[in-house]
Design a protein that fits this description.
This protein is α+β, with helices and mostly antiparallel strands. The protein contains three helices and four strands. It has one domain.
């Protein structure tokens, strides 16, 4: 079998089927397209939730294009009152720079037109209060948020 060279990448090593330079360019384009699509979906989700867009989801906070983190339960309640949805809680493990701890995550799941299922979440912070918020009253088993 004869090795080929690429006219676009003459300094790339000879190849049998695919030029390494062309393969890298294609990979880079695909990654850029994915990132752009995720940013567009994230902006569409945040707009439908009535939130400002801030570009890419914050991975360190557990965000994706369709999973949005709120600062606290008061902020999450504002979204819940705006769009409704199903409220659930669960115990999760969070990891910081020096430790790991258990937290109670509150999640509002809602189906947004033209987007699909979206989750908006935060951890319960006792210091913020809010046991009387409509969001907290909608939790099926409010005992998960101990007094």
């Amino acid at each position: 079998m004869r090795l080929q060279t690429c006219k676009r990448h003459p300094h790339a090593a000879p190849f049998m089927a695919t030029c390494s330079g062309c393969a890298q360019e294609l990979y880079d384009i695909e990654q850029a397209n994915r990132a752009r699509a995720e940013a567009e979906l994230s902006a569409k989700v945040r707009k439908a939730l009535g939130l400002p867009s801030h570009g890419q989801p914050i991975r360190e906070a557990g965000e994706t294009a369709v999973r949005v983190c709120m600062w606290d339960q008061v902020e999450l309640n504002t979204v819940y009152e705006r769009v409704g949805g199903t409220v659930t809680t669960r115990t999760v493990q969070r990891t910081g720079s020096c430790s790991t701890w258990a937290a109670t995550e509150i999640t509002v799941a809602v189906d947004l037109p033209g987007v699909g299922r979206v989750e908006v979440f935060t951890d319960w912070y006792e210091e913020c209060g809010g046991r009387d918020l409509p969001l907290m009253q909608a939790i099926p088993d409010a005992k998960l948020i101990a007094a």
